[in-house]
């Protein structure tokens, strides 16, 4: 499975008669051959002298449990140079911008000093208070985030260390036998991944135009579906012509997003966070209450009785929608949840695509006609007595 | 683009991706029984690992096909 490491890779130096094997430091490099995707797992396996399959399994495991595997793999792909190269993709990019590692280090130091001086909250919530957020993305495990920071720092430090040791150990051109520096020519790059990426954008763009022209609503999940469909076709083509395995990274990124988006049946409107509305008079009642994410509480328990029915549409794309009604109220409630659960007056349903209607009418009482939606989350309706 | 020997890994990943894309495009994700999603994903990823771990795979796939007939 793993490649045989040469004596040079083991860091040793041997003398056998007149033959001399040059000592070379073991370098952390992504494989350019015998790889599955970007050669990160293979490179780590070579570096630590372990079977790359174990590294791949670790990446997949981390991907499933928390999603850190994907982030780590992409980070490795970007930060570890390919075999035969001195610079990683990120370093090449910064080099093109004229940013040397030293300058980047100074910038990083300045940012850290700013964070300390400005007392910026680290890993605090996104609460809309204007404070700078430095921490994991919403939904990302904080432990995974900081593990990623540590690992990326480790890779950078490793690269710095090997840079100095390589400089010290690299023999002169005169000392190196020609055969030892001869390398197999790199495989020509395939344009297929670029073609497919362009096709993905075209497909999504055309779908958006068609939905506008035909006035037919296309859900976010369907846009992701179109993108994944094109990526799938590209990969199938790449099974015989050209190479496009890098697209698998895009698939790994887009597939979970697409699955989540496909459950977003609720309108993507409103703000983020916990919001509570407690109208007391009918005039204060809005027809619509929308939230993009968080908890939206609609407390109608203290609403004065009205001669007319009260119509309200409320939705939460991600999170909980809670409605509190006065005890004994006359109700007509329509619920729609993409994925999650519905709990209306003690009746609970859990699953996906949950549609329900709850009607309880009492004569001579105000009827609350509610359209309640949650994309991914919970719709919770309960009653309490008036105070 | 040069034709090469069949790359089973790309083929399998492509078919799985195409299937998921069509499912999302049709809007039928909500109809998929959730209890089958976990096992399905595990089987799919397992197949990919098996295909990726085949011995001698890389050497064979890197060889361009000789389509010229003598």
Number of H- or I-type helical stretches of chain B: 3
Q: Biggest interface and its residues per chain?
A: A-B, 52 and 39 residues
Q: Assess the beta-strand content of chain B as a share of residues.
A: under 5%
Helix/strand/pairing category of chain B: mainly alpha
What's the oligomerization state? heterodimer
Rounded to an integer, what's the Rg of chain A over CA atoms?
29 Å
Q: Tell me the overall shape of chain B.
A: flat
Q: Would you tell me the structural class of the helices and strands of chain A?
A: alpha/beta
Order of helices and strands of chain A: EEHHHHHHHHHHEEEEEEE
Question: Could you give the count of β-strands of chain A?
Answer: 9
Which percent bin holds the helix content of chain A? 25-40%
- Characterize the largest beta sheet of chain B: strand count, sense, and whether it forms a barrel: none
Order of helices and strands of chain B: HHH
* Main pleated-sheet profile of chain A: 7 strands, mixed
- Number of separate strands of chain B: 0
Query: What is the overall number of helices of chain A?
Result: 10
Average pLDDT over all residues of chain A: 76
Average of the residue pLDDT scores of chain B: 75
CA distance, first residue to last residue of chain B = 22 Å
Residue runs with pLDDT of under 50 for 5 or more positions of chain B: none
Overall radius of gyration of chain B: 17 Å
Give descriptors for this structure.
heterodimer; A: 387 residues; alpha/beta; two-stranded antiparallel ribbon; 10 helices; disordered N terminus; B: 70 residues; mainly alpha; flat
């Amino acid at each position: 499975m793993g490649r045989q490491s040469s004596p040079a890779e083991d860091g040793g130096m041997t003398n056998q008669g007149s033959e001399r094997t040059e000592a070379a430091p073991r370098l952390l490099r992504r494989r350019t051959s015998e790889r599955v995707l970007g050669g990160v797992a293979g490179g780590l396996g070579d570096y630590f002298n372990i079977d790359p399959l174990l590294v791949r399994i670790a990446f997949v495991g981390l991907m499933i449990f928390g999603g850190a595997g994907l982030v780590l793999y992409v980070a490795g792909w970007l930060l570890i140079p390919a075999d035969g190269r001195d610079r990683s993709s990120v370093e090449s990019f910064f080099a093109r911008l004229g940013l040397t590692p030293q300058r980047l280090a100074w910038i990083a130091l300045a940012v850290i000093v700013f964070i300390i001086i400005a007392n910026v909250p680290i890993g605090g919530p996104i609460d809309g208070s204007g404070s700078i957020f430095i921490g994991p993305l919403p939904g990302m495990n904080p432990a995974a985030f900081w593990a990623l920071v540590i690992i990326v720092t480790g890779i950078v430090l490793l690269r710095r260390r090997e840079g100095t040791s390589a400089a010290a150990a690299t023999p002169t051109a005169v000392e190196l036998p020609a055969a030892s520096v001869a390398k197999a020519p790199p495989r020509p790059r395939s344009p297929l991944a670029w073609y497919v990426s362009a096709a993905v954008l075209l497909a999504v763009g055309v779908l958006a135009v068609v939905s506008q022209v035909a006035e037919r609503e296309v859900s976010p999940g369907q846009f992701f579906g179109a993108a994944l469909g094109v990526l799938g076709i590209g990969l199938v083509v790449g099974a015989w012509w050209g190479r496009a395995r890098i697209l698998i990274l895009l698939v790994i990124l887009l597939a979970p997003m697409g699955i989540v988006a496909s459950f977003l049946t609720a309108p993507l409107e409103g703000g983020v966070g916990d919001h509570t509305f407690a109208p007391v008079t009918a005039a204060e009642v809005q027809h619509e209450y929308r939230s993009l994410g968080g908890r939206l509480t609609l407390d109608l328990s203290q609403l004065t009785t009205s001669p007319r029915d009260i119509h309200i549409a409320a939705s939460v794309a991600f999170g909980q929608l809670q409605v509190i009604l006065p005890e004994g109220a006359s109700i007509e409630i329509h619920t729609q949840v993409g994925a999650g659960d519905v709990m209306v007056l003690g009746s609970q349903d859990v699953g996906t695509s949950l549609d329900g209607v709850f009607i309880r009418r009492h004569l001579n009482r105000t009827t609350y006609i509610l359209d309640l939606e949650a994309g991914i989350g919970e719709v919770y309706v309960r009653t309490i007595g008036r105070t | 683009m040069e034709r090469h020997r069949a790359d089973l890994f790309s083929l399998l990943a492509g078919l799985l991706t195409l299937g998921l894309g069509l499912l999302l495009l049709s809007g039928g994700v909500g109809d998929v029984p959730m209890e089958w999603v976990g096992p399905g994903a595990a089987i799919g990823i397992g197949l990919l690992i098996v295909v990726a771990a085949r011995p001698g795979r890389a050497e064979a796939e890197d060889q361009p096909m000789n389509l010229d007939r003598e």
